[in-house]
Amino acid sequence: MTRTPRLPLLAAALLIAALLPAAPAAHAAPAKTPPLTTPWTAQALIGTPLPEYPRPQMTRPDWQNLNGEWELRQSATDDPPQFGVTLPERVNVPFPVESALSGVQRPANDNRNYLFYRRGFTVPASWAGRRVQLHFGAVDWQATVWVNGTQVGGHTGGYDAFTFDVTPQLRAGSNELVVKVWDPTDTRQNGSLPPIGKQTKTPNGIFYTPTSGIWQTVWLEPTPASSISSVDLYASLADSTVRVRVFTRGTVAGYSVLAEAMNGSTVVGQAVGGFTEFRVPVPNARRWSPDDPFLYNLRVTLRDGSGAPVDRTMHYFGMREITTGVVNGVLRPLLNGQFVFQTGTLDQGFWPDGLYTAPTDAALAFDLQKHKDLGFNMVRKHIKVEPQRWFYHADRLGILVWQDIPSLTAQDVNATDAQQAQFEAEAREIVDEHRSSPAVVAYTVYNEGWGERALADTRRVGQNVKNQDPTRLVNVHSGYNCCQSLGNPGNGDIDDWHMYLGPASPLPSASRVAVLGEFGGLGLHTAGHEYSPAGGFFAYEWQPNAAALTDRYVGLVDGVRNLMIGRGLSASVYTEITDLEGELNGFVTYDRQVVKMDQARVRAANQALIAASRSLPALAPVSLPVNTRRSLQVTTPGYTDRYLRHRNSLAYTEVVTAGSPALLKNDATYTIRPGLADAACYSFESVNFPGQFLRHANSRVQNSVNDGSALLRADATWCARTGLTGSGVSFESWNYRGSYLRHYAAEVWLSDGSGGQPWNSPSMWTADSTWNVAAPWAP
Description:
The protein is an alpha+beta fold. It is elongated.
């Protein structure tokens, strides 16, 4: 099948990628001085910038890197291109013109939104007889391309790749390449409203310096006249196969495809198909996961009608599936059929020297490796899409990726039908481009209402993404409980709250898992490693030193664990992996020079959270003897001689023994009644104050007279569950699901253990919220 024109589904084999020849060295314009220097700043312009093969999920042996010094002209007006004319400035491609590494470092508010790039290139003689493809990894935002004065195509969209066949325009010897870019960012120039994510012409707070123009690798590739343009790959665990669909260029009538699955260089399964989906067996498949990110190679050969090879590409894939399923009565995300809590950070992908563009490939991999070092198994790539090599690093390192769709502006959203359609078109291209990455397990379509035009649009676009790629989870709106959101869309696979500081959690439903899409944001100053273009610094809560910062973070993780156990939370995203412009809430400074927390303690907390998700208590309903007296005994070690009792209407725990006064014994005894609001649950009536029931009010537990109101009946109804510790009984509030009867400092409260108030402390929450339904002290 021919798919044109679409961004080539970037795919490449591990085996071949390591053997690809290096690109020739390119002269670089001198870098400007960045506001902060990363460990890779000095290496970025040695030889060809970013010389690595740019499409590591579909490789061929021959290619030419066009990164390096280009000519540049900036204009405030929509001028025509100039051909055969030397342009006045120099720029290092692929670094955006606002960055220091570009050699330009223009101000964020520069109004020259039209950029003209120019360079020469020579096609190697060994490519004779083949077509030549000109690839752009990404250009922000609208690009038009000429080769030797002839327009070869245009593209709109700042986060997806595009390709032109430039063979007809080539000539012997030197060729001229000219690229015109229009990037209005958030200026609304000419009625524009492009997807921009966190970019702004006026950086401040949580919005940052923009990226304009070419910001990913530009390269040439020779292909046969009939060739493979992209390959979609999906693992199928049920029958141990990989589903393959091949797209092509040129004439392929009568052609076939041979696909060979390989463990390293050893073929383990093969199949012949055409240009619709077919399956390749992968016997005894080794499953991909964060704990074992094993990648198979796939060799794809296009064959003519006689069976002779015409084109061959190398790819890789991971045998993994992401679904949802009920675990102990709670809907959970399942990786390869198993629930594993997904804990990650918000990763915005900005750099003080390269902005959107990491200075080197090692830098690009650094943030992902740091996630692993810190014990995380997931990353939320926040309203930016990285180069294909970033996804390759996530695939090989074993990091689950939640990929955001970059949003329209967060302010004054008034998209026209055409602007909404462009946003949706760019979203489709992003989904298409990353179909084959095993790391990508979820797409987030909207964030906190940014770019949201109407709730009906939100639901429709979310469903369209799910229809486009049903093999992944879709988070239709992350943080719909926040900011300018138009409300809960109600569809998709994920129900996502944001809560600062948090943690907090929505309740899972029969169709959506519960996640905490953003929380945390703890800040710490690190002198000499901070930068703010506006001069101020922001965090959601400041800490005085690294020890206090680490203590606070570990406490937040304890709260997340309690929400996982008691409320059904399945994933959390901490803000954030690195500091940014004006934001100091990262684990690592913006220049990647300093880890701000105790890495070992952070890793231990995160790994303990993941481990706890593998052995969750069932929390199954527990039957209690109605119309029977019982006492509620504390099960927390060291306090098992204490029982719940009322005193002056409030609930406390107190030591009760055979020698205790009759009043205390009566206060510590309740009659179990069918739930006042739900007979499937229970209410507890005081034996010495008949008609008074144990209820919560403003989180404090107390006795109250049954006044017949709906609120009293709801507050006084408790659902008995298997204990949160795995034994005993826990009592979940009927009208505040996920919150439980809990003792703290001899008082009794309604608590979800997420933190905040002292009585909601995460420490000892599961034990403090587990009771023994004991024989009554007042029979």
